[in-house]
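Hey, I'm writing a tutorial for new members on how sequence and structure tokens pair up, and I'd like a real worked example in the thread rather than a made-up one. If someone can provide the structure for the chain below, I'll link this post from the tutorial.
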Amino acid sequence: MQDATPHSSPLGPLPTTLPPEHPRVRTGGTAVLLVNLGTPDGTDYWSMRRYLKEFLSDRRVIETPRVLWWPILNGVILTRRPSKSGELYKSVWNKELDESPLRTLTRSQSEQLAARLRFMQPAVHVDWAMRYGTPSISSRLQALKDSGFDRILLAPLYPQYCAATTATVQDKAFQSLMAMRWQPALRTLPPYYDNPAYIAALAGSVRTHLAAMSWQPEVVLASFHGIPQSYFDKGDPYHCHCMKTTRLLREALGWDKERLRTTFQSRFGPAAWLQPYTDKTLEALGQQGVKRIAVLTPGFAADCLETLEEIAVQGEEQFHAAGGRDYTAIPCLNDSPGGIAMLEALLKQELSGWAN
């Protein structure tokens, strides 16, 4: 890298090689920017409102025409939902660090990957951002560019591609580049729903969790975040990616279709979403006499409100109310050794030619 005037940087001070009158320039570094969905900065009403407004204003997330959606969003949802969502977040909040579990885990993933990728040649810096909330994608891309990282691998932490997740991260990154006079080279991490390293990590996680239990589930649900059926009808590949992940995981575990099933959670509003629904499946299985169930959430790279509260808490309550007895929620890969090793393998593959 070259630098007109040495200053602090993740790579440390560098020698001056440009003329004194030249604008400050730093170049030649390679970085990874991990991106997860997002998190409110707090559980209070206004923090939740800011977060929900940014999230639910995204045209990739809500495709309803603005003339219909804006009155609903600003007149009803942003008046009532922040308080309700804040209470749910309080139940899973990391009180020690005063932040959401998703922020804690994404930071840990970044730090552990940074420790591993610094041994590449040249060393690779790792940073992280959130699509909604802070730190923002634009702020971290600008900070990386200002620090001399002109080769950046953007890594949306979504195994299965969806326009409402992967695409909106890339949209935001490209919009940020549009404001830069000197843009960095940008690569994007492809969806990894069928990558052998990802499937192996999932299988290892399931085996480890079940081996530590005193009972074994009759049925295991692979619960993915849902999307409206209309998005799938328009050509979104998300459903196909989810189904393939479950099939490959089933094969890796040596299970049949009855033992490991795909469901979809977190539906919102009156429209039809991808089915079968996780909550309805839990109720039906309990009513059918199934007594022992495990649920994993392969579409989430890190535990968050949708896994820690919706699946681990609400899911268990729904299953018990329907007659079920034993219930367990299998944690996401998070910052576990297997999860970090998997992400390291994916990143190194995409960094080929930039670092070795």
